[in-house]
Amino acid sequence: MIRLNRQLVAQIEWFLPVVTCALCALGLATVHSATYDPAHGVDPLVTRQLIWLGIGLAGMVVVLTLDYRTLERFAYFLYGLVVLTLIIVLASGVVGGGARRWLRIGPLTVQPSEPMKIVLILVLARYFSRAQLAPQGMRLRSLTIPLVLTAVPAAVILMQPDLGTVGVLLVVFATMAFVAGARLTPFVTVFALALASGPLLWAYLLKPYQQRRIMSYFNPEGDPLGAGYHIIQSRIAVGSGQFWGKGFLQGTQNQLNFLPEQHTDFIFSVFAEEWGFAGAIVLLILYFALVIRGFVIANRARDTFGALLCLGVAGMIFWGVVVNVGMTTGLLPVVGIPLPLFSYGGSSLVSLFVGIGLLMNVQMRRFTFVRGSI
Amino acid sequence: MGIGVVVLSFLLMAVRLWDLQINQGEAMRGLSEHNRIRLRRVPAQRGVIYDRNGVVLVENRPSFDVLLVPEDAGDVGQVAALLGRYLGDGIALDSAAHGQRGRAPYQGVVVRRDISWSGVAAIESRQLELPGVSLAVTPRRLYPFGTLAAHLLGYVGEATPKDLEQRAELRMGDLIGKAGIEQVRDHELRGIPGGEQIEVDAAGRGIRVLAEEPDIPGYSLVLTIDRDVQAAAEESLEGHNGAIVALDPNTGEVLALASRPTFDPNVFASGITAAAWRDLTKDPLRPLTNRATQGQYPPGSTFKIVVGTAALEERVVGLGKSVCCGGGLFFGGHFFRCWRKQGHGCLGFHRGLVESCDVFFYETGSRLGVDRIADYSRRYGLGGLTGLGLGSEEPGLIPDSNWKKRRFGEKWYPGETLSVAIGQGYVLATPLQMASLMGTVASSGIRYRPFVVKRIEGPGASVTEFKPEVAGKLNVSKSTLSSLQAALRDVVQGEHGTGQRARIDGVEVAGKTGTAQAAGAGVAQGGEQGAARRFRDHAWFVAYAPADMPTIAVAALVENAGQHGGTVAAPMARAVMERYLLGRSGQDDTAQQTASRAD
């Protein structure tokens, strides 16, 4: 019989899993609405998402049983493993929608760029927590190694191409470097460099459809048949929800397939159309609570590694929400990233559950006297 | 600070939602009902195709299609019934109902293509009774000369689900090239469709255009084809099955490429009916097959040009009398006949080719052996694709001892070489290959890659010009070529030549006749009278002119003619060369004739 470490179990956090599951439930309902066809009933996508949800919960429990400091030891090993899978994807992945992002494993298709986000947080947290901080903050030189750690997977993912995920990796890096105590000057330097190399990247790295998407952000009328139309339709969907929404399964914009990627990238428009301003605000409050809870746990963590880990995960969720909602409401360009815990997509869901598991892990092991595994 | 960023961001999102859902909510709700903002694709004009002199071979005409949006129509059955009454019977109600499968909501279904002007007027004036019905102006392909060069030009048809899968730029209902130039050059011809973002009222009628993107017309093509020469080829093939290919031996430009039986590509332009399609595909004569490039026939005596070249170059025969023909030859226990029963007497290369003596070539062939014959055949481009760039092309067949081992696991028998030497046995060639062969002789051993597109004219002044390309060289001595050319000239111009019917007043012609036993003819050895049509001989004539400075090379093939090449095919080749060299029988006159026939 397994003997539970009672002291540890007593410290298990309940707030995070409850909020997470609430978000997932709403997400699942909205995926159902977005794919609903009265003639066919429940779409297989919903069932699949449900299975992924189970896998995610299992992953969360597994992560809880291990001390997060064990993970610290294996950080580089895990990092190497996922980067390797990314390279395999590039060589022999499944192509969909003009990109090579997936790997087929039995009946499931897996998107290794999703776990990459978590693994990157792990290695960055490890690196920054051990870096010797100069009294006046980190200089550009001490940022080089973490920058390379970020750039390698980012470059591989850029080749898939998946601009959204690359953006998330870069933002996660910036967030963690910043909270780890990097000074503002190196950031300005990097930003200036990026800006200077922009035209080059534009011409050589971006595919025409990506160029169009960015152009259409600055000038949506410029591409009335493509991205411009998507932005307008998404805005109409969100706006037409008004205060109380049109009701579950009653959204017309999404029901009629006007929204592109309605069950993934544009899921928020579907939700906002059916649940209105009231529903959207509730959703935002849930996300807000999740992120703030992550900050609180980071604050209480017993070591820098744990704190950075939590900030990384909270930052990843935060930026995911901001970019996705910003895109669907026409505030930001269409960069195609999923809404965390909400959009259809198994790899993303499981990775996020592991991330939430990490937060809980740090929380329950915050006191020095409790250690080890459950 | 981190918390500050988070709080501020969430506030910003909330404010944006307030603005969209509360401030603009009413307006947005209105726009969302009936999907008030829609996209309408405007298909691009396909590129025009010209002949080498600027005569339009393919163009576009506007046509009206009736579109029905079932969501706007309310009672689809009733609207369809009304439409049926206004347009005459047989409105495709099925497509209105079944079109829903795989169709995005609010996407119109084409219920009738290419309606008449009176139909347009009827629908326009009854807009109010017909909710959800609209007219779309669609460019349609028009082939003003009807069947002229149908196999070469090809035809268009609706993109199949497979096409849609393979080419992301296509949408359901798009017309794409399905054969010939239309297919091979579809990317250049199709252009980029434009579209409009329109606001519609509750009945689906457009109120205003919110934004539009103009279509970009497809590129124009200028072909190497000469319409008049093509017409001459088609006219002479009338009533026969076969093919004629004419090309410029100095560049490889194809001047005419005709195949019979044929079809009218206009039938495909507004959607071919199932019955018409069945007729075309089930026809035993297979009118959709391009016999000029896909028809593989034994070349018969025209192949003696290849064997003759090899014989001279390899010095297995001299120019003096070297073989005696007594009407046939015993070889390996078989009697191989010469076409002339009484025999040719003793002759050398010149008379051997001019009078097409079979015994002479049996003898030379067996001295050369099959592998040397195969080598020279390949130097002429036989047994491989010419690279015409018209999609469907067959390579023909040049046998050698290796091939036989691979194919049948057997060694090559010397007796088989005799059949090969007169272009029978396993040897197969397409009319295009034979024209290219004749071009190679005419240009003194340089084989140009035959091509049909001379120029692609893009938007503005951008032009892609196609230059002649050398596909291969014969690599034989000058004396071999001049002996060969002299003999070919005498086939037509000489007293005893077999191709005298190809003579043109004032121009010297060089050529070679061929009469090839159709595959399986051995089975029906009941004499030509009783033989089924498909066992009758094929008639060949290959030629170039003027003999001293050739500007045109021609191959004419008549399938199962049952007559000699010199009798039936030579006059066809003559007509084509005559039209090109002398421009006879009034260009305007024929243009009108053909145009009125197309109507």
Helix content of chain A: 55-70%
Distance between the termini of chain A: 13 Å
The overall strand count of chain B is 23
Radius of gyration of chain A: 21 Å
Described by strand count, sense and barrel closure, the largest sheet of chain B is: 7 strands, mixed
Q: From the structure provided, what is the oligomeric state, counting identical versus distinct chains?
A: heterodimer
Share of β-strand residues of chain A:
under 5%
Please indicate the percent range of residues of chain B in DSSP E strands (runs of 2 or more).
15-25%
Q: Give the number of helices of chain B.
A: 25
| Largest contact between chains | A-B, 46 and 39 residues
Strand order of the largest sheet of chain A: 1-2-3
Describe the sheet with the most strands of chain A: 3 strands, antiparallel
Rg of chain B, nearest Å: 31 Å
At CATH's second level, what is the architecture of the largest domain in chain B?
3-Layer(aba) Sandwich
Provide mean pLDDT of chain A, rounded.
Answer: 82
Shape of chain A: globular
Number of domains of chain B: 2
Using brief descriptors, characterize the structure shown.
heterodimer; A: 374 residues; mainly alpha; three-stranded antiparallel beta sheet; 3 strands; globular; B: 599 residues; alpha+beta; Penicillin-binding protein 2a (Domain 2); Beta-lactamase; 2 domains; five-stranded antiparallel beta sheet; 23 strands; elongated
Write up this protein.
The complex is a heterodimer of chains A (374) and B (599). With 374 residues, chain A is mostly helical. Chain A has one domain (9-364). Helix content of chain A is 68%, strand content 3%. Chain A has a three-stranded antiparallel sheet, covered by helices on one side. In chain A, a hairpin with a 2-residue loop joins strand 2 (99-105) and strand 3. Chain B is an alpha+beta fold and 599 residues long. Chain B contains 25 helices and 23 strands. In chain B, strand 22 and strand 23 (552-558) form a beta hairpin. The chains are: A mainly alpha (374), B alpha+beta (599). Chains A and B meet through helix 10, helix 11, helix 12 and helix 13 of A and helix 1, helix 2, strand 1, strand 8 and strand 9 of B.
